[in-house]
Amino acid sequence: MHELGTEAKFDLIITNAQVVRPSLDRTDLGIDIGVSAGRIAALEPGLAQSAQGPVVDAKGSFIFPGVVDAHTHMGIYAPLAEDAVSESRAAAFGGTTTVINYMRTGQYYLNQGGSYGEFFPQVLDQISGNSHVDYAFHLAPMQASHIEEIPRLIEEYGVTSFKIFMFYGSHGLHGRSSDQAEFLMTPPGERYDYAHFEFVMRGIARAREQFPQLADHISLSLHCETAEIMAAYTKLVEEAGELTGLAAYSASRPPHSEGLAVTIASYLAHETECSNINLLHLSGAKAMDAALRMERAFPAVNFRREVTIGHLLADIDTANGVYGKVNPPLRPREDVEALWNHVLAGEVDWVVSDHACCKLEHKVAAENPDDVWLAKSGFGGTEYLLSGLFSEGTRRGLSPAAIARLVSTQPAQRYGCTNKGDLEVGFDADLVALDPKHSYTVAAADSPSTQGYTPFEGMELTGRVTDVWLRGSQILENGQVVGTREGRYLPRGNR
Q1: Please, are residues 431 and 96 in contact by the beta-carbon 8 Å criterion?
Q2: What pTM was estimated for this model as a whole?
């Protein structure tokens, strides 16, 4: 893209774009976007001709609101200060302008236990000045004292979303864990189990009563897998020895384990009146079926359903071998198709990356790189979130406005990013130009991420992000990340 004009009134004008308006469910032709002081100041025809200011000719590209990638794990496999630099660069490369990062005490991340009052300021200090995009955090109450800290986290830090990892009952991050307390760094005598999950939910419900002005944005997210089912099936699959790779890993964490966990979590939410529940990274037909059944069973619970771009694009046969290991697992192709049917039916609320950069040298065991049981879980993908959803979604009949709602508007609204996720006057000028005619082959070598591989290697995508602005400042120009790291922490809610 190139600049056409000069001087004042607007800091930036974008013209000749197809402007994606998710809240209006349409794409507007013939209107220009005027930006002032980091916000969208005007959406009108003829700004480029009648107003003064630098003008960017979008040349028929779609202009999307900046992606709000509501599920990332920066800092899980590398120091947060280091990971934030490279992986926020990857985010910007793909059109993500806001990440909401999951963080917890215990092994990985900062590798320490204790209170969030001591832990979270360290998190904010380590990421400050290191992110190319804006950022917020979900926090996980891992021990009883963390539940007591929820009101302070909301009031002092603007953290309004929390998480439960249901499978940690007997599993670590990558598989069986012999010592839960050691892995989670919980105090002596405490258990991370269904009783703890119940008490977390009661804590969230109390917080919503304590902060009624923020209640719509205070929510609990759940990783829904059942530890006991997983432990039993892992043993069965290993002993049978008939399956290998991602097929074995999927069978060891069977789909009904997800469905059962969704059911348990939903009933607990009903019992505790914890009414804002987010069901994360639902991986296939059985998980989605359980989630929809629970919505009908408990209408007082405000459920949201999340799917990842990995589970929509890749399956156990296409995902570059054990490099596609993730929790919950990638599934067979029939589950991928089932997820797409739910997306097209409007039964998925948002799509995320679940980005967790695990570098090539750490992902697989050097002594046996093909052993899925020894490989680490998780992979990156924020750089392919918008492009991948656009490419495959439009082919299946998904409109650009619907795509924007899935990756921007709906996660922003749920999680209290009140100035993000839409193209309307007054919103942050987080803008993404996507060339709908640009087809390319995914190659890890082209990504700014330090991961070094991708389960999407060799996929053909149509629709490439070319330019990105964060609060009106360009952070991607002609496919290259530019500028200084100006990402800001976002306290959330009506603050």
Answers
A1: no
A2: 0.96
Total count of domains within the chain: 1
The structure tokens listed for 75 are: 């800092």
Sign of CA dihedral 314, 319, 323, 325: positive
pLDDT recorded at residue 169? 60
Tell me the β-bridge partners of 396: none
Paired strand residues for 36:
39
Q: Is residue 22 part of a domain?
A: no
Q: Kindly report the backbone phi and psi dihedral angles of residue 418, in degrees, each rounded to the nearest multiple of 5, phi listed first.
A: -70, -20
CB-based burial of residue 454 (10 Å sphere; 0-12 exposed, 13-18 middle, 19+ buried)? buried
Residue 127 lies in a domain: yes
pLDDT band at 171 (very low <50, low <70, confident <90, very high): low
CB atoms within 10 A of CB 365: 14
**pLDDT tens for each residue of 12-56:** 999 999 999 999 999 999 999 999 999 999 999 999 998 888 999
11 assigned to some structural domain: no
CATH code of the domain in which 445 resides: 3.20.20.140
Per-residue model confidence as pLDDT tens digits over 433-452: 999 999 999 999 999 999 99
Which tens digit of pLDDT belongs to each residue from 83-135? 999 999 999 999 999 999 999 999 999 999 999 999 999 999 999 999 999 99
146 vs 184: CA distance, rounded Å: 13
**Structural domain for 297, as ranges:** 65-421+435-460
Strand ranges of the sheet holding 276-279, from the earlier edge strand across to the other edge? 67-72, 96-103, 134-139, 161-165, 219-223, 276-279, 302-308, 350-352
- 495 belongs to a structural domain: no
Residue type, 286: K
Q: How confident is the model at residue 167 (pLDDT cuts 50, 70, 90)?
A: confident
The values of phi and psi at residue 172, to 5°, are: -90, -155
Q: In what order do the strands lie in the sheet with 431-441?
A: 26-29, 18-21, 62-65, 431-441, 460-470, 473-477, 480-481
Residue with tokens 């359903």: 305
